[in-house]
């Protein structure tokens, strides 16, 4: 019925054959035509919006059975992973192209979670794939003890996206490694030890960064890095203070306040909490403060607009350096700016990044000032894989693609549209407590009711989550109580995709309410 091929060529594949579908088959538009595929949905296709076109036809899956994969998962994969599949009925992914994923049965999903906010420019993006293919034929690996062009081309390109004096780059392989290194650098440079972090944050799973991570779901009963102290997260929806124009988002909270324009009582209160932490929990001199511009795993939590500015000032007065964890918010995702911190009009002393940097390929980085970097010369820092030619070629192509395809602007346009529409659902349904975010870093916080703001129970969250997936869309979950849906898609999604998702999300909410 259609040409089968890899998605690189399938993008341009022509179509032949009929497109009137028999019962039980769903019509999918493809290129200039349409195809019939066995409907994998438990819903009648008529109940669903039409899935937007995708000019890619996945290869037929001929690999191991689902049962065998689950058996191996139980027996040979790490015990925590073997218990978790995210969904009750797991998704077995086989292939991806841009914002689309296909499971082993050929069912297509709109991917609004991007492998946990990681696939920035699109699954198997043709340009990035071509750059990887070109480099893999030339040279995969050599360490940075040698001078190779891809590393230098990339470092120059990445540095050019950051303001002065953030110009010295340490490449690593993961976000945890980057934050680990940032902690070390902060301590070496300042000669102090204590680092302050926001509650609800996730900064990594290594033993050092677990000290920063302030969400008990990710903490083990072992000694993690000492000297990490959490302060109250300035969450203007769930926290004790918040109002009607606190945050930098197209959608404000449902709370009201009487603050005059340019004044934010909530900010003063949260900064007061930070001062309390300084007064009670850390020595008078500290090594640093780390926070994400928008808290990702915490559920796209946003702070009052001036929080970073005021917090950075207080931290620096105590000898500390300010670290922006941009693992989720960078590379245009936040829409208004390339880097999340730019939305707060501050310049951190150090920026850490991972995930979107390589569109899914393992690479991460710490960027800092020449002055801070100089303190690292006391010993030899070595990392075998960091800055490999392959990783650098891929990351370099990601930067080009974000620019060439206007993905930051797309993130702003499509994200703003999505949040504005989601806010209408929030106004309609008592269990949608908050819609927030910037660009394509979006959170939808679910509550039992808007008055108590008690988090919607995990079972209820799972039901809605599973339903959305069954109807063809993958989203994420987060929040300290697992109460927030996270929407962090590849930056290439379109308004048409949003129009496909919204009725599905609403239907899942209605289905849940009907079952209650
Ligand atoms: N920081 C943030 C904000 C993250 O979201 C994550 C991962 N979810 C990390 C750090 C750690 O990154 P990695 O999983 O690559 O170690």
Written overview of the protein:
With 516 residues, the chain is an alpha/beta fold. It has a domain at 71-117 and 407-515: Aspartate Aminotransferase, domain 1 (Alpha-Beta Complex). Helix content is 33%, strand content 15%. The chain is built from 14 helices and 17 strands. The protein has a seven-stranded mixed β-sheet with strand order 6-12-11-10-9-7-8, with helices on both faces. Strands 3-4-5-15 form a four-stranded mixed β-sheet. It has a four-stranded antiparallel β-sheet with strand order 13-14-17-16, with helices on one face. A hairpin with a 2-residue loop joins strand 1 and strand 2. Helix 5 packs antiparallel against helix 11 (389-404). It is globular, with a radius of gyration of 23 Å. The two termini are 43 Å apart. Bound molecules: 4'-deoxy-4'-aminopyridoxal-5'-phosphate. The site of 4'-deoxy-4'-aminopyridoxal-5'-phosphate has 15 residues, from helix 7.
User: How large a portion of the residues is in β-strands, by DSSP E?
Assistant: 15-25%
Helix percent band = 25-40%
Per DSSP E runs of 2 or more residues, the count of β-strands stands at 17
Describe the main β-sheet briefly.
7 strands, mixed
Full CATH superfamily name of one domain = Aspartate Aminotransferase, domain 1
**How many separate helices?**
14
CATH class of one domain: Alpha Beta
CATH topology of one domain: Aspartate Aminotransferase, domain 1
What kind of assembly state do the chains in view correspond to? single chain
Instruction: Decide which structural class fits the backbone.
Output: alpha/beta
Query: Taking strands numbered 1, 2, ... along the chain, how are they ordered across the largest sheet?
Result: 6-12-11-10-9-7-8
The radius of gyration is 23 Å
Please tell me the CATH architecture of one domain by its name: Alpha-Beta Complex
